[in-house]
Amino acid sequence: MSELVTGDAVVLELRPARLPSRALAAAIDLAVIFFVFMMVSVLMGIASATLDEAAVAAVGVAMFLLVLVGGPIAVETLSHGRSLGKLACGLRVVRDDGGPIRFRHALVRGAMGVVEILMTFGAVACIASLVSARGRRFGDVFAGTLVIRERVPVKRSGAVPPPPPWLAGRFAQVDLSAVPDELWLAIRQYLTRMRELDPGVGRSIAGRLADELVARTGIDPPRSVPAAAFLAAVVHERQSRDARRVFTGARGRASAAPTPAAAPTPAGAAGAAGAAGAAGVTGGSAGGVGGVRPVSAARSVGGAGFGVRPEAGGSPGAQKDAGASSGGFAPPG
Hints:
Blueprint: E1 2-5, E2 11-14, H1 19-47, H2 53-78, H3 84-89, E3 91-95, H4 103-119, H5 123-131, H6 138-143, E4 145-149, H7 181-193, H8 199-217, H9 227-256, H10 266-286, H11 297-300, H12 316-327
Antiparallel strand pairs: 1-2, 3-4
């Protein structure tokens, strides 16, 4: 992994391509170039059959420069560093700052490639790539470029830790519409990776994100509550609202679907009456509609890694213990 710092002070983590993948890409490119060169040579030989030797030599030099030198330069310029061989191997040529290359970069790489690859059969390029820490040949050094790997495995992001039960539902009445998606993404990335950070650095990042969230929403955060727990509770509230919105929309579409009416038979009517009575008992005891016990938002998304609100009958000490064990956040003193 190579860390590059752009002009905007952004650190880029790039994977430089090594010699085996670069050699395979160069072999594919050379095979295509020589095939095109042979085809053009045959056509030009037929077309220049009536020319003298000087004209034939001039045509040969022009074909060499146009096909073997100008061809790779044009392809890398138009494709922004992805020739046919690099496309097949998942490689790309970029600038030292991670940006796309331009004509001058491709020109320097192509001119040096004539000496490094064509005239020395790739020996100089292989030695330079082995010696370089980032696998660069002389053409990359003089052009200020780097060949990187584009096809890298993507790490799956971890689940957001659940908030403590004593904070679940605390921010149900807060307006979260003013929070931009960039801030939500930053908070989620912090919560999923906070266990990998240095404790001091983690507290600093959590405090900065919490202050920005308070400025966007006007929330009065509870005192003596860690910033990480506060962020987890607010993110949980937002995800609970999204889950309720999805479930409500699905239920509304299901209820709006037309159902054909059928005349009930006497036995069917009696069975329906009995089922309605049982549903009424269940609905009265659980507060549901149609005999289905409603699932709270905190419990409905509990399987996705969010905290479950404790029962009302639990003691405060038990609630604090449950919060400390489920979300990894200690309750306030």
